[in-house]
Design a protein that fits this description.
Strand 3, helix 3 and strand 4 form a beta-alpha-beta unit. With about 350 residues, the chain is α/β, with parallel strands linked by helices. The protein is built from 10 helices and 15 strands. It has an 8-stranded mixed β-sheet with strand order 10-9-8-11-6-12-15-14. It is elongated, with a radius of gyration of 23 Å.
């Protein structure tokens, strides 16, 4: 078991904070931060700023002209050991003269995991791993999920009344929640690389599924699951030039015996595009199918202080006949957003 000092923890915490600055630009890459300490003084820091550009370690080393003799590097993710769009960071670290590298987590890619550490150790550099590992894993949970399963991390967004309804029987749903919650949804969209919906929602609501904020950096891919090939009208908002759109239908995605799109294969397809984070915004049919297939990692639920009655539509149409079959959620955060309640929850692993 590695031991770390308070100063070590503070340095790694700073590396975590600056890593987040790359959230909207690193695309398929992980967010990574690096802090260089010498004689208990921070002498440099850097983070991975955008896809295809220098990694965090290189940006930090550049600030001190690659001269890190006797210094310690604190890195949120294992330094790369291979040549991709950029040269391997491990070589730059070795050449800099650094004496020690503290790593929060190993690279989750099974083909790379531990290789960077081996290179550093073989070069005579002291390496410690596991400092704030849980925080580092959470920071890049989408990247970790894709590396381990081939699928992105899926967040399901729901706007509902306090009695659990998401639309009237006519399909009318504008607006259940208030302005503050709707702005928060745009921030949530901005934090994801793709927005997933179903053809029924497109046909009924004609949504834009775009980020409408003043400081937009990324434009998520719009993805429509269209099992019956009904989405063809190019005048629909989903085909606006605000963002790109991908239609998943029987022509490009595996189908089940029922004729429905294989949702696991659909997410594998998105993972193959380098997408780490997907936001599901759809009606009860697709939400239920995603729950049934154990493909939702987290729920973000906006609950408005209104009642919509027994004839309105619920967030899902799952058939659960007994309390023993209920699906238990674990709430990780709950707060007010304007006049609405925002709940963040995940499905307990015991249900899956």
């Amino acid at each position: 078991m590695e031991t770390f000092s308070i100063n070590d923890t503070e340095a790694m915490s700073l590396a975590m904070r600056i890593a987040r600055l790359g959230r909207h630009k690193v695309k398929s890459n992980p967010m990574v931060g690096c802090v260089i300490v010498k004689d208990e003084v921070i002498v440099a820091q850097g983070y991975h700023q955008q896809f295809g550009s220098n990694h965090a370690e290189i940006n930090a080393l550049e600030n001190i002209n690659y001269k890190a003799e006797g210094a310690t590097l604190f890195v949120t993710l294992e330094p790369c050991s291979h040549t991709g769009k950029t040269p391997p960071c491990t070589k730059a670290i070795i050449d800099s003269g650094a004496k020690k590298v503290v790593i929060a987590m190993l690279d989750p890619n099974p083909n790379i995991n531990g290789e960077g550490v081996k290179m550093l150790i073989n070069a005579g550099i002291e390496v410690k791993t596991g400092l704030l590992e849980d925080e580092a894993t959470k920071l890049n949970r989408g990247f970790v999920k894709r590396m381990k399963s081939g699928r992105p991390f899926v967040t399901c967004k729901v706007a509902m009344s306090i009695d659990g309804k998401t639309s009237m029987t006519s399909g009318e749903s504008k607006w259940i929640t208030g302005d503050a919650a709707r702005i928060d949804v745009h921030r949530l969209r901005h934090d994801n690389q793709a927005i997933l919906t179903g053809s029924g929602t497109v046909a009924l609501d004609d949504p834009k599924l775009t980020v409408r904020l003043d400081d937009v950096i990324s434009r998520p891919l719009r993805v429509v699951v269209d099992s019956t090939n009904i989405i063809a009208d190019r005048s629909l908002n989903i085909f606006s030039d605000d963002s790109e759109t991908l239609i998943l239908n029987q022509n490009n995605t595996k189908t089940l015996d029922s004729g429905k799109i294989d949702l696991t294969d659909a997410l594998q397809h998105l993972g193959g595009l380098g997408i780490n984070y997907v936001l599901l915004e759809s009606g009860p049919g697709l939400i239920s199918a995603m729950i049934d297939s154990n493909l939702i990692d987290e729920f973000v639920i906006y609950c408005a202080p209104v009642l919509m009655g027994g004839h309105a539509n619920s967030m899902n149409n799952l058939i659960i006949r007994s309390m023993s079959d209920k699906i238990q959620l674990s709430i990780s955060d709950i707060r007010m957003v304007g006049s609405d309640i925002k709940i963040i929850a995940s499905i307990n692993s015991t249900n899956q």
